[in-house]
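Question thread 4412

I'm putting together a teaching handout and wanted feedback from people who do this every day. The idea is simple: show students a protein as raw sequence, then show them the structure tokens that encode its fold, then repeat with a second protein so they can compare. Below is the first pair exactly as I plan to print it.
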Amino acid sequence: MEHAPTWLTNSLIYLGAAVLGVPLSRYLGLGSIIGYLAAGIAIGPWGLGLVSNVQDILHFAEVGVVLMLFLIGLELEPRRLWNLRRPIFGWGSVQMLGCTALLCAAAMAVGLPWRVSLVAALGLALSSTASALQTMGERNMLPTSSGQAGFSILLFQDVAAIPVLALLPLLGGLADASDAAGGSRWLEAAKILAVVGGIVLGGRLLLRPLLRWIARSKTPEIFTAAALLLVLANAALMQLVGLSMALGAFLAGVLLAESEYRRELETDIEPFKGLLLGLFFIAVGMSIDFGVLRQSAGMMALLVFGFLALKAVVIYALGRAMGLPAQERPVFTLLLAQGGEFAFVVFQAAAGAQVLAPQTSSLLIGAVTVSMLLSPLLLVLVDKLVLPRYARGKSAQLEEISEPQQAPVIIAGFGRYGQIVGRLLTAQGIAATVLDHDADMIEAARTFGYKVFYGDATRLDLLRTAGAQTAKVLVIAVDDTAQSLKIVELAHEHFPGLELVARARDVTHWNELRDRGVTRVEREVFESSLRSGRTVLEVLGFTPHEARTQAMRFRRHNFQLFEQMYPHHKDRAKVIAVVKQGRRQLEEQMAHERAEREARRGKEGFVSAEPLPSEDQRSNAPPASQREPWR
């Protein structure tokens, strides 16, 4: 009987281990990363021994990290990335230098040579981009201040890993100090600049036309293949000149962040990213050398908890200096304190450059792997033991929904907008389930007697627990536009019977909500601005009845204008033409009505106690060309 190919057998083992391990881990409340790591340990050389070629799988699975960085780049427009330059290079360098200095000093204090101490400190100062960003994504931390800070530091580490690798031959005494070697280094620097410049220019000039041409073929699988080719080609170019593959993929994502194909690229690549990232964590679990752990158990424990504690001191102090909220600092600290996958490369290269002995390199690699295994477990302890203490210190306990709710209305977001909706419903005796993930806001709301559940409405499991399957209305009042749109998409896909009432921050958000089929949309400042306009008319001499009539007329006209604009909202020239035509029609209609009203007043002999504003007074407003009446 013919045996199945090795690749097929291994694929069955990996998929079977993941399908069994991850759901069980999540059921136990340990998270998906622990499930993947445990699956890797179970099938690896020190478990059932079903798979032995760990390093080959680890290298292949790094593509998952590459795809993850590409998707993160898609979420960052170049302008937003430029705004992050200070935290990236400022706080990132502080974290890297601070952790390296403290770890190096501790290693030298126990008698290690300075070269070994420095290389070990540089490698251990790096954090796991894959694990940290995966956890941030699961917890929806990236939009928060701690998520942005953590992402900035991780991105700096990816950049800093390159000079660290370049430093190793010098420390090992293997570098040639001749002029030829110096010229070679200059040539390498020129190649790096040329590749980065080529990616940026090519991305600006060629990527969009290329994707547009491929999209016209109307072959979805080819577009998916093109998306994967784009990511892997950029990663390969970066690796060719000695840079991080993940950094190349991230740069490609940033270049396409403003393109019209952003959402389609995300949809196509997300499944591959999830599978390959899971495979990466399985490979990390398989790579844990329990033989080294058994032989040097005491040394390993001291090394792991020692470097975790020292890094935690620096990172927690950094979090305080950055002004991060107190309840966010423990998770921020733990995610960055663990070792990183790039440390594997650093320590292996250090052994090759004869800076580290092979036994020392294996011990350090084992410590990093164990820290990646322990971090999700420590995170569970932080959630259960540490975070509630922060909440109790504020006289409020963060309570995420655990029991199914039955209220007919769900309010997602309880800021100034959601609170008004909730107060109106409460006054009418209508129950509502309120969700928000801002701990400070929850504390303030509970001070006034409101029951608000701590949770993120972009999570499908939380929406189910909140009663979205039986509720009648979901009020989407969150501040963040991207989160608002994600909630809409989740609701349409999983709860089609749920009526959506959404808050729009501006006309762009209004159009995006309408594109997703939401018809009950209210602009957050429109009604209050209109009421202020009525007050101004009354101050200028209009009677309250006249001011209200004119405001309501303008309100109806504005709604009609929006409906006329919506079919053309992607064509700026057409939108401007519609707005100008609508404004001209309104002004002509209002002028005609004013003339009729003045004529009627003259015939009836009625004189207002205060004169109506003159044409000169009305013309004191800014020119129409300087206003955006559709905002």
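The second pair follows. I'd like the answer to focus on this one:
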Amino acid sequence: MQTPSPATPPKVTGGADLKAERDRFVAMSFCWADFLLEVDLEERIVFAGGPWQGITGKTTDELKGVPLLDLVHDEDVELMRSLLGVARRQGRIEDVDIRFKGRGQMQLPIGFAGYFLEDLGNHYFLAMRMSRQPGGGITPKGREKKAGSNLYDAKSFADVLGGKLKAGAEDSHLTLINIPGMAELKARLGDDDQAELDKVLGTYLRANSVDGDSAAELDAGKYTIVHGDDINVGHLETQLADVAKKFDPEHQDLEVLAATMEVDSQNISEEDLANGLLYAINQFKEQGDKFNIKDLSTNLSSLVNDAANKVSTFKTTVANMAFNLVYHPIVDVMTGEVHHYEALTRFEEGISPYEIITMAEQTGLIPGFDMAVVEKGLEFLNTIPRNSPMSIAINISGQSVASDWYVNKLHNLLKDNAWAKGRMVFEITESSKMEDLDAANNFIQRLRKDGYPVCLDDFGAGAASFSYLMRLEVDVVKLDGPVVKDAQKARRGKALFESMATLCKNLGIETIAEMVDNKAGLDFVRKCGIDYAQGYLFGKPNADVKKFKMADHVHLFPNPSFTKGGGW
């Protein structure tokens, strides 16, 4: 349960009012607290209130002059010291659990909150209460299961990070932290100790951040914090390593790697800075455990700034529709007839579409881009005679499927262009994972009901493919190119590939194989029971569909039949 905040700190000007204000603070704190401590700048107890004798064996008078850290369990001394540092910098502490020493060998988990008040003699005022189990009583040993680390995730962190860095200007820094052995350590722990480890690590990181709340867990063993000049990053590395070792039943030394990024936050808008940081953080997440974080941080420093500029440029590109679509035929493996064309994005020469689209997904800009592609595709189809059966496939990121803005705008756009029904197919890509499959299936069924077939792209590329197939009712699946290539090489590849084709056929779903670049590949997918093929065998993507002369490939098909159309 979250620890309540103590009373709002008093505002005083000094003199005779000090004692009265202190008494008022004590009285209000005891509305929810079991204990109260007032501690001076030397971290010695000035005043104690509550049943301390039953806990420590000392009366409240006997506690006066005792160092606060003498009451804290040895393993949490550094944590308490860090929290006091936060209070000095930020003025307050809240929602933190610390283990205190009890009589005998008892460890007493105590939640506390408090203030550091310059107006009251530069003293700490700590209101504290016992952490209780559901049935009441005190846990004499071991650790209670905690509610989590209280750290941001990568996306949430990036959303607020740009503003905090800009607000702090030159005094704020971003530090990346990697603990390569964290996954192995957690595998050696039970659920309760894993939760407690997350809680303690999270508290250390928050305690060292600029406002006690600017820290994130990006991935297993990967963290980042925003902090000021007063934080010793080397000392933080040591603290985290000590915490990990104390939790480890094997007491192994874990390596902790930290490096600080220098980010130019003054010359970039807050929104673009946040997007650039999110992109850079995702690059950090995708790195393996073994890498040189010092080099990475240097590279990421420029990457953040470069990414922020790329984000700004990308948004301008989308707004101005300053990109092109090229088309690639999907053909029937038996007849060679073009079924439809996939629309592929091309930017200016030298810019990788994959990298740009990945960046758009990682920075949350992909729904706007996906919508621009639909609009561009409609423009192209509008140049084709309405009596032509030609159809095109438009890609949709899994992230866009989850965007209410995109879903609503797409359906309104299709409603306004009813003539496109039957001439546009939608391919949902797996590059950005879908989490709410029920909502995704509702979106898909609405498209199908309105006359727009749906294809599940990248099938077989990830473990999620089969769960998608179970939950998402689609018309066709496109087998990922590398899967098609690998199936031709592996000894058991043909059997596995055939089983995927058979599964889809039994479900009433048609199949497309990517990367069919030669006759052997076409023969292979045909023998495996695949319905359609796409690849360089039939030509490279081109803005002019007339460039594809399927009649030149008549010798490749057992039952050649060529038309200018296509579509379900």
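Top answer:
Good format. For the second protein you could add a caption like this: The longest helix spans residues 293-319. The chain has three domains: 17-130, 154-313, 382-538+546-555.
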